[in-house]
Amino acid sequence: MFWEKEIETMDVNELRKLQLERLKSALLRANLAPYYSQLFSEVGFDPAKVSSLENIQSIPFTAKNDLREHYPYGFVAVPRDEIVRMHSSSGTTGRATVVFHTQGDVDRWTNFVARSIYTTGGRKGDVFQNTMGYGLFTGGLGLHYGAERVGMMVIPSGPGNSVRQINLMRDFGTTAVHILPSYAMRLLDVFEELSLDPKKDVNLKIAFLGAEPHSEEMRQKIADSYDMEAYNSYGLTEMNGPGVAFECPEKDGMHVWEDGFLMEVIDPETAEPVPDGEVGELVFTTLTREAMPLIRYRTRDLASVYPDPCPCGRTHLRISRIKGRSDDMLIVKGVNMFPIQIETVLMGFPDIGRNYQIILETKEHMDEMTINVEVLRSADDMRVYEGLKKQIGAAVRSEILITPKVNLLQPGSIEKTEGKAIRVVDKREKE
Ligand code: DLL
């Protein structure tokens, strides 16, 4: 049983009290890590004197760069022989950031994930296929352990080898799947190549979609194409990985597991708190992690907090779908935009296929945007899509005020990546 009712539906004041108790010990533990003990003494912060959650506002934020600069062990707060696991973030630029766990950390992480899975209706007896990467990436092992704790039968298929994925689903009657949204889309092409119908020829009931931005429209498309319930799952390596925030059956915002994470939402420019309902950058403090406590960690992820309680009865705060990362924001011809805005427009066209990419170039000293997008059905002569091209151009223009060049491509022609989808290729000349 993983309905942790007492915690999940705790009275909000009680939840804040629990957070304060946990925050106090988290700060004392953090003080054992070289980085935080130096930081606390530099800014004159005494972790023993904390009396409210707001007290942490006098501690400077921690950023990814701090983790990089104090690589590998500068944030570790326990003796090295207490560490049983490390993971590393998927960042492709600069030095990797590593995160360490004690056995207790792994257990608590597993619980957050098990609780999340249970929330979506995943149960003992389900057959769970985990198509996320195993290894340093947290998507594989994170969900694996959580699903086992729920009692599901886990198929640790890992990513790639799409024909085998489909065979596994068919042979073992997979009912729940953990999958990147971009891969769930791509797999549809493979079903088609095999003349199989994902609605009838496999038995999927639940999908956990996460690890990359995706629009509500894409979720809907995935859920409809496989005839299953698709739940949004958010997390990041620095906060363990998956199991930070998860949708409940309402599918309206993700509950942040506040008994493990203290969340702030700030204006990414001014770093001032933003009110509920307004989009800002998520900042997290780990409340229970032993090996590597992180205090006020800036995620760069942009979302808003729902001001009202969830009809499901869970009292833990809900956040919106991630709108993008503050460092993903594109400035094209002087206009600020997020790639997800384009995805939302594309998904509105039923003839659009399963993959797209935004290319930015400099042409005659000006920014130029090209949207490469696959169509659903291949055509010998792509000119049949001329009308669609124009419609997409106009719809994008009305969303972001920029007229893109649109290239419609045959299904499967955009280069595939095994990990998270690369949605933007920025080839612009830097000044
Ligand atoms: O992606 C952890 C994870 C694995 C989450 C599996 C969910 C499922 P990282 O590789 O460190 O960890 O990347 C974290 O991915 O800061 C977001 O920018 C993005 N991200 C994660 N989940 C979502 C989501 C894992 N549901 C970074 N929607 C985060 C949008 C997401 N973006």
Q: How does this model look, in words?
A:
- With 431 residues, the protein is of the alpha/beta class.
- The protein folds into 2 domains: 1-325, ANL, N-terminal domain (Rossmann fold); 330-426, GMP Synthetase, Chain A, domain 3, CATH 3.30.300.
- It has helices spanning 5-8, 12-30, 34-43, 64-69, 103-119, 138-150, 162-172, 181-193, 216-226, 339-347, 386-400, and strands at 83-88, 98-102, 127-130, 153-155, 176-179, 206-210, 229-236, 241-247, 254-256, 261-266, 280-286, 297-303, 318-319, 324-325, 330-332, 335-337, 352-363, 366-375, 405-409, 424-426.
- α5 (103-119) crosses α6 (138-150), α8 (181-193) packs parallel to α9 (216-226) and α10 packs across α11.
- The longest helix has 19 residues, at 12-30.
- The protein starts with a helix and ends in a 5-residue tail after the last strand.
- 5'-O-[hydroxy(phenylacetyl)phosphoryl]adenosine (DLL) binds at residues 89-90, 132, 138-139, 210-213, 232-237, 241-242, 299, 301, 322, 325.
- 5'-O-[hydroxy(phenylacetyl)phosphoryl]adenosine (DLL) is lined by residues 89-90, 132, 138-139, 210-213, 232-237, 241-242, 299, 301, 322, 325.
Provide a short characterization of the protein structure.
The protein is α/β, with parallel strands linked by helices and 431 residues long. The chain has helices spanning 5-8, 12-30, 34-43, 64-69, 103-119, 138-150, 162-172, 181-193, 216-226, 339-347, 386-400; strands at 83-88, 98-102, 127-130, 153-155, 176-179, 206-210, 229-236, 241-247, 254-256, 261-266, 280-286, 297-303, 318-319, 324-325, 330-332, 335-337, 352-363, 366-375, 405-409, 424-426. Helix 5 crosses helix 6 (138-150), helix 8 packs parallel to helix 9 (216-226) and helix 10 packs across helix 11.
